[in-house]
């Protein structure tokens, strides 16, 4: 199981408010806060996300094909997380909406895609009734 995901940053203090706002909407806050590393989540809770300056001292770069997904409780929260991301310096990578067809249980993957200020690709998603 995943405990947390770490993303590189070149501006920890500048990018932290982006994740503070996302975390607040998700009902969590900072669980670790150091000069070169901040982690959001809840100890003993679901997987968290962390932002760090690269340990090797080199410039942080975006992983091609890498994405972190935040599981939202419903479609409204997916939309709010997308709005929060854009309001906090993020860029749009795909407006909220259904992706693909409903599964055998009548649920559809509902998602929004965005990037943080460093260009890391993120997603907010939920499984939602196809007719709702």
Automatic annotation (TrEMBL):
It comes from the Bacteria. Coiled coil: none annotated. Residues 1-127 form the VOC domain. PANTHER family: BLL2941 PROTEIN, GLYOXALASE FAMILY PROTEIN (AFU_ORTHOLOGUE AFUA_5G14830). This is VOC family protein. It comes from Alteriqipengyuania abyssalis.
């Amino acid at each position: 199981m995943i405990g947390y995901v770490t993303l590189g940053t070149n501006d920890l203090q500048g990018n932290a408010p982006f994740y503070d706002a996302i975390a607040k909407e998700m009902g969590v806050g900072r669980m670790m806060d150091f000069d070169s590393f901040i982690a959001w989540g809840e100890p003993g809770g679901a997987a968290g996300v962390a932002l760090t300056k690269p340990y090797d001292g080199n410039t942080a770069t975006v992983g091609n094909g890498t994405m972190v997904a935040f599981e939202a409780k419903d479609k409204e929260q997916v939309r709010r997380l997308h709005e929060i991301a854009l309001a906090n310096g993020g860029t749009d990578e795909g407006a909220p909406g259904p992706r693909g067809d409903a599964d055998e249980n009548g649920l559809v993957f509902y998602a929004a895609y965005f990037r943080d200020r460093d260009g890391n690709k993120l997603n907010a998603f939920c499984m939602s009734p196809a007719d709702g």
